[in-house]
């Protein structure tokens, strides 16, 4: 059962959320497992995190955000493979990854 939460106040137990960390430049899906008046606990695949009302790093769940984040991480991984500064190799790797569908939010158009 999915609970709807608009991002204000404390999300109810069972609500799917996204932790959008600016420090680590990542996004993770979690579920609220405990909530009180001013704080709540989320489970991120067995890792628990405590958050407070108004925490700007917690946003309502949206699969598009998770997909985009994974695509960006995939793109960053591909680019880091060629960190020696050879932009041609980097461009080829990125092009091939987009062409094969490994980066779903990018499409090659003619």
Helix content: 25-40%
Enumerate how many helices there are, as a single number. 2
Poorly predicted regions are none
Q: Give me the CATH architecture of the largest domain, please.
A: Roll
Mean pLDDT over all positions: 81
- Write down the domain tally: 2
Q: What string, H for helix and E for strand, traces the elements in order?
A: EEEEEHH
**Extended strand count:** 5
> In CATH's first tier, which class of the largest domain applies?
Mainly Beta
Summarize the structure.
The protein is α+β, with helices and mostly antiparallel strands and 110 residues long. Helices cover 29% and strands 28% of the residues. The chain contains two helices and five strands; from the N terminus they run βββββαα.
Written account of the structure:
It is a single chain. The protein has 110 residues and is of the alpha+beta class. It folds into two domains: 16-61, Roll (SH3 type barrels); 65-99, no CATH class. It is built from two helices and five strands; from the N terminus they run βββββαα. It has a five-stranded antiparallel sheet with strand order 4-3-2-1-5. A hairpin with a 3-residue loop joins β2 (26-35) and β3. α1 runs antiparallel to α2. The radius of gyration is 18 Å and the shape is elongated. The mean pLDDT is 81.
């Amino acid at each position: 059962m999915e609970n709807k939460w608009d991002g204000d106040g404390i999300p109810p137990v069972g609500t799917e959320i996204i932790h959008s960390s600016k420090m680590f430049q990542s996004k993770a899906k979690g579920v609220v497992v405990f909530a009180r008046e001013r704080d709540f606990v989320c489970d991120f695949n067995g890792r628990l995190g405590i958050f407070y009302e108004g925490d700007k790093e917690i946003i309502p769940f949206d699969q598009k955000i998770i997909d985009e984040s994974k695509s960006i991480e995939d793109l960053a991984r591909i680019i880091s493979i060629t960190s020696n500064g050879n932009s041609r190799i980097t461009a080829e790797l990125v092009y091939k990854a987009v062409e094969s569908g490994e980066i779903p939010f990018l499409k090659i158009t003619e």
